[in-house]
Design a protein that fits this description.
Blueprint: H1 2-17, H2 19-48, E1 59-66, E2 71-74, H3 78-87, E3 91-104, E4 110-117, H4 121-125, E5 131-132, E6 147-150, H5 152-159, E7 169-172, E8 175-182, E9 206-209, E10 225-230, H6 236-253, H7 255-258, E11 261-267, H8 268-273, H9 276-308, H10 310-318, H11 323-359, H12 374-399, H13 404-407, H14 418-453, E12 464-470, H15 479-494, E13 499-505, E14 516-518, E15 520-521, E16 532-538, H16 542-546, E17 550-553, E18 567-571, H17 572-579, E19 588-593, E20 599-608, E21 623-627, E22 635-642, H18 650-660, E23 666-671, H19 672-679, H20 681-715, H21 717-725, H22 730-759, H23 775-801, H24 805-809
Parallel strand pairs: 4-9, 6-8, 16-21, 18-20
Antiparallel strand pairs: 1-2, 1-10, 1-11, 3-4, 3-7, 3-10, 5-8, 6-9, 7-8, 12-22, 12-23, 13-22, 14-16, 15-19, 17-20, 18-21, 19-20
Helix pairs in contact: 1-11, 2-9, 2-11, 2-12, 3-6, 9-12, 9-14, 9-20, 11-12, 14-20, 14-22, 14-23, 15-18, 20-23, 22-23
Length: 812
Amino acid sequence: MQTLWQDLRYGLRMLAKRPGFTFIAVLTLALGIGANTAIFSAVNSVLLRPLPYKDSDRLVQIWENHRRRGVKDNSISYPNFIDWKNRSKTLEMSAYRIWLFQLTGTSEPEALLGSFVSGDLFATLGVQPASGRAFTTEEDQPNRNKVAIISHSLWQRRFNSDSGIIGKTIQLGDESHEIVGVMPAGFDFPPSIPTTAKLPSRHADIFVPLGLDPAKTPRGVSSLFAVGRLKDGATLEQAQAEMDSIATSLEEEHPRTNGEKGVNLVALHTQVVGDTRPALLILLAAVAFVLLIACANVANLLLARSLARQKEIAIRSALGASRLRVIRQLITESSIVSTLGGGAGLLIAVWGVEALKAISPDYIPRADQIQIDARVVIFTLTVSLLTGLIAGCAPALHASKTDLNEALKEGGKGTPQSGRGHLRSLFVISEVALSLVLLIGAGLLIKSFLRIQSIDPGFRSENVLTTWILLPSSKYPKERDQAAFFEKALSSFESLPGVEAAGAVNALPMTGTDSSSSFRIEGREVSSDSPHAQYRTVNDHYFRAMGIRIIAGREFSSTDNQSARPVAIVNESLARRYWGDENPVGKRVSVNNDDKGQPVWNEIVGVAGDVRHFGLNQEPRPELYVPYLQSPENFMIVALRCATDPGLLAGAVRNEILAIDRDQSVFNTRAMEQLVEDSVSDRRFNMLLLGVFAALALSLASVGLYGVMSYSMSQRTHEIGIRSALGARRGDVIRLVVGQGMALAAVGIGAGLAAAIALTRLMSSLLFGVSVLDPAIFAGVSLMLAATAFVACYIPARRAARVDPMTALRYE
């Protein structure tokens, strides 16, 4: 321990004597370690940290699947859920339905994301309310579910942390619910919203018992989600096998509704993480490359410094210091540098984490929980120590091989040994190769992002304001009441200055809402595999407000109401799939049956252009539009085509709704352009981060190459002086120096290309419309890196060419 303390004190004194060297080395490592710490904090929060439930590794998400359609994650029906629950011996399970509640009876009505849940949901999750109680079995019955449990954040935000909140009532729509519990802080359910729709919040603020009667709930209606807990001794594989058996039995018992339907179990943590795992791991690998480049830079600095200390090391060796003792001293110094770099990197990571949380797209689960915790600090400390060993080991081994006779000669310069020159060259080649891999990865993501940005979504998003309106079913129970409200609201919107058209739809593009429905085509045989399409309810001005083309026929009009014949509009994809080149206008389809069970036939009056509803990277699906006045709903999304900036009308839209109903709220008011941007936010996030890391890697590699060439030229001043004295021109010297540097860069580029060909295949899931071996990206990035390397070599080459031969010859 005393020897270690001596090494530390001596190392600190030596580093203090060279503050410039110390600052550059610490800063270089701080950038690499800080980037790694920031990304690891995201990996830790999203991938490694368990979900906030008791024994969360035993929780599973339960889906219905449809084998014929290849759907593995379909919502479930309540009667099927009850049968699963009663027959399963391996799972405890609970159902829930995501819902939007209207908080009324206050000065400011608000739409709240909430959930109807089974009475035993909290027991299944292993979480109980922080105050009050959970639901009882009796409360999970029809017409007896007028109780509620609220989230900790809602309790703080809307009820001022009232300690006497239990037993008080909350107004949801025009129904009163007694508050029986408040969940603990940090409780997050559902942990993964099973839709990409832009909801008021990522977390439920209110919970109400389902209160369903399985005997009165159609088995064919799938509107619920389910979560289960593996019983003691049961494995996921055993539970899946059991649920497969139960699904087969239900298929035999209910062939009409359960034909080709099965059950799919997914570990809840896997469900929550979703598609974020590969992206985060690729980013973690990218910052690891940056750290390796930083290590190579610092190793080169340490090599150069060890050369300047040859005489000191020789004297220590002559006085009896063993080679191991010298190596330990030098590694101790590099460890001090890396530890200082780790401390500075941790400070950089604190800022980096806040930046990550600010730019993280909604698709990253638990992004708001990213933080520097004990595990992240341990990771940073470990990385710092490993970095010290990696950066310091090779220089220490080479420095300890000092030739005592040569180093102790009077006036000896200590010309660099060829082994050290080769080692510095190897570091530079490694930096260039790693940089090229990151640059190619960033280039592929940039090209992919530009490619997806150039896709026509099928509508015009500019100058469109959208807002969501949900009418409480208890207050507007009849379709005519719902239709009257929206007709009045849309009419008032169109009277606002600057509004050119007011449209409304039940499922807005780019919100990811899946509203598929089966339908029949008149004159064609009904089969078990009936046609399916996305079902859209729209008003007569929707197509004009959204800028969707009508290719054939006409759009809806105000006369397409309940007293008129039912009509429909289909999109290009539906028309092409089911009618080929034939014009479908005038044909009839049926989506619903009448009270007698007979199909209601809708005449097709128009064909609309395709819309990429689920994202720019998703191909258009068949869509079927029906007029709102013939099929009213209590939830609609309004789209206002504006002549000016749509954001200026947000307040006016809010006021118009309050003028119609003072308890009615609007939510998710935003520009359509923002929704389109949000739909590619995950790709923008990946591109931005990998681009930043690639730029940092390029900078470090360029600095490393520049430093090696500069140092090499300083050691060859005498040689260059002789060359100049013998007639070498400045151009000859520049070509010599640049040629040597570019040779290293060429080897690095070659190695980088080989590595990129192997590694970019891992990025295929992050790309769109771009090959992982895109020749333009590979060639362009290689040329850019070569040009950067040329500049890094040319600057020291020019300086070397200006050396005065007489001065250089007096160098020795």
